[in-house]
Amino acid sequence: MTVVTIDRFAASTTEGGAMGACAVEETTEVVVAGASPRAANARPVEGGPSPSPSPSPSLGEPREPAIWSRNFRYYFTARSAGLLSWAMLPVAVSAGLLSSGYGLAVAGYAMAFLVAPFAGLVLFGGVLADRFTARRMMIVADVANLAAHVLLAVLFVRGIDHLWHLYALLVVAGTANALFQPGAASTVPLVARDVQGANGILRTSEAITGLGGPALAGVLVGFGSTGWVMILSAVAYGTSAVCLLALRLGVVPAPPAGAGLWHNLAVGWREFRSRTWLWGVIVIWMVYAVLAWGPQLPVAAGVVVPEHGATAFGVLNSALGVGTVVGGLLAIRFKPRRPLAAGAVALVAYPLYPLGLVLGWPVGALAAAQVLVGVGVGVWGVMWATSVQTQVPGDVLNRVHAYEVAGSVGMYPIGAALAGPAVAAFGTDRVLLVGAVVGTLTVVALLAVRPIRTLQRVPDRT
What is the pLDDT of residues 407-430, one digit of tens each? Predict the structure, then answer.
């Protein structure tokens, strides 16, 4: 037998609009017996009215857009709200603690309690998303984040009597994001026919929220309103949960019933390992994260802030964000036959920024270099996400994406942590030059590995 989930809801949106309020009326689950063998490993309709696929539009019947469909508008709203909240949290917590008289050590511990659960539990998030559906796990994560942020608001408004209260709530937030992240990738192919275009829009939204979230949090904390940052984040997570609940996702692949946690992890690992282009990119990116990308931010801060001031450093990081927005927008329309090869070529500008720091370029030239770096990062990010989402089967995509995130994101903190000792041992210029060389070799390595270089783009769904 197969479980069919049927959601009936009313949605108030303007025709053709990108966002809308979601009003959910009822959710029921119907057990359908006698499912066909083809449907044995699928959940035949999550949030839809029928277990059968939707027929093709008849002649003259309006067709749903390739990107801005009803489902994608809800998902875009949910994802943007969550990204804004996640971007605000580190700044709000760190600045809130420092303004309350706590030292840098406490702020550092707080970030560790936020990031460590994400890195450690994201693999299990992938398994749970495959077992219970990504949408359900993302809704659970949003509700957990909503509750955690309400309690964080109370904590900052009333005052922190015991630091372990703060650390515990940050663990909840980090765990919730570990549950959310795997499903964020596998949902995109279900809500848009043009997966690359959808990823370009989502990447642009991520860059914009990454720019605006910290700035907004900093302004509110500057007015002594850390608690209001948390309330705003709680509202955003509530919005995300309601809009995810309103999705109609159609057929949702599922792993075989009865498989245990460790078996599912092992299956995900086999699927990850079986694709040379996939694990090859992750291995290359791990080296890049430790030796180049990870150390760059703290080392650059040590160069720019003493010479040009904190404002200049903020401008340079904003320039990177602007470039990422441009890269995301370009990638909506730019659809090369070999996406990973094109994405690798887009990264060739990376060495300009560390080289500019070594050569003492003025802030304007450094900002221009950061824009170019951001464009490359934006294009690569879209090409990579689209390749993973379209090349990996849906019934294992959440788990494979979890291994991808654990391998790539997990190495960044190590690179950042090694920056200080490396500068002390070898000097700032040498660390920056190593980063520039590794950045160049990363492009060379991505293009040298044949399965990465020759991976073909999957056409958009018709």
Answer: 777 777 778 777 778 888 999 899
Nearest to 44 by CA among 248, 187, 259: 248
Distance of alpha carbon 440 from alpha carbon 442, whole angstroms: 5
Query: From residue 263, how far is each of 37, 279, 286, 394, 446 by CA, in Å?
Result: 22, 20, 26, 17, 31
Which DSSP string corresponds to 236-274?
A: HHHHHHHHHHT-----EE-PPTT--HHHHHHHHHHHHHT
- Contact residues for 374 (Cβ-Cβ < 8 A; gap 6+): 207, 319, 320, 321, 322, 323, 324, 325, 326, 327
Distance CA 4, CA 1 (A): 10
| Residue that is written with structure tokens 């919005």 in the block | 239
The secondary element (H helix, E strand) that includes residue 234 is helix 226-245
pLDDT in tens, 74-130: 999 999 999 999 888 887 887 778 777 787 667 767 877 887 787 777 777 777 777
Tell me how crowded residue 375 is: count the other CB atoms within 10 A of its CB. 24
Which single residue is written with the structure tokens 């500019």? 356
- Does the CA dihedral 240-245-250-253 come out positive or negative? positive
Percentages (nearest 5) of helix, strand, coil residues in the chain: 75, 5, 20
Q: Which residue blocks in 32-103 are alpha helix, DSSP H?
A: 70-99
Instruction: Give one DSSP letter per residue of 312-374, joined into a string.
Output: HHHHHHHHHHHHHHHHHHHHHH---SSHHHHHHHHGGGTTHHHHHHHHT--HHHHHHHHHHHH
Alpha-carbon gap, residue 67 to 63, rounded angstroms: 12
35 token code pair: 């499912």
Per-residue CA distances from 62 to 66, 69, 145 (Å): 12, 12, 38
Of 167, 189, 8, 25, the closest CA to residue 97 belongs to 167
Residues in the chain: 462
pLDDT, average across residues 365-370: 94
